[in-house]
Please model this.
Amino acid sequence: MDPSALNSPDLQRFLNQEKEKAMVNEMVAKLTSVCWDKCITGTPGNKFSSSESACLSNCAQRFMDLTMIIMKRIQSMQ
Amino acid sequence: MDSFSTGSSGTGPPQFSTDEFMDQMKVQLAQAYAQEFLETVREKCFEKCITKPGSSLSGSESSCVPRCVDRYIEATGIVGRALLTSRSNS
Model:
């Protein structure tokens, strides 16, 4: 492989986009896994109850809230 | 990285095509994401649907699994949308 091909701006843009997509995908996957465990307690039905879907949505948002709180806490300690 | 070089019957080094590389990467990434999703859904639905493994799947276990897959896909959508909302608010 010609190493100078790595400098292609198209390739760099592509790699950055895919890296971003992979990070988003990982976050969604992890959040879904955590929130599924917390919110879907019984046997899955033909649809979510309104409390189950509210729980999933709330769970994701509260998880993200935690990130900010934890970051600020750690920053305040330095 | 031979899989990324175009076959060339002539002399000289294999030609490296950025477009081909990107196309191959997209295919491999899509396959990797699909594989990971399958493994996650399998684990979650086994846990929810198969409480006492018997010598074969019972009727209720068999009907639970497709429902569970549908719900997990739906949950992924709900969580993904909630994530978008919180990202735009931060």
Summary: Residues 3-77 of chain A form a domain with the Helix Hairpins fold (CATH 1.10.287.810). Chain A has a mean pLDDT of 93. Chain A has two helices and no strands. Chain A touches chain B at residues 1-2, 5, 8, 10-11, 14, 18, 22, 24-25, 27-29, 31-33, 35-36, 39-40, 43-48, 53, 56-61, 64-65, 68 (CB under 8 Å).
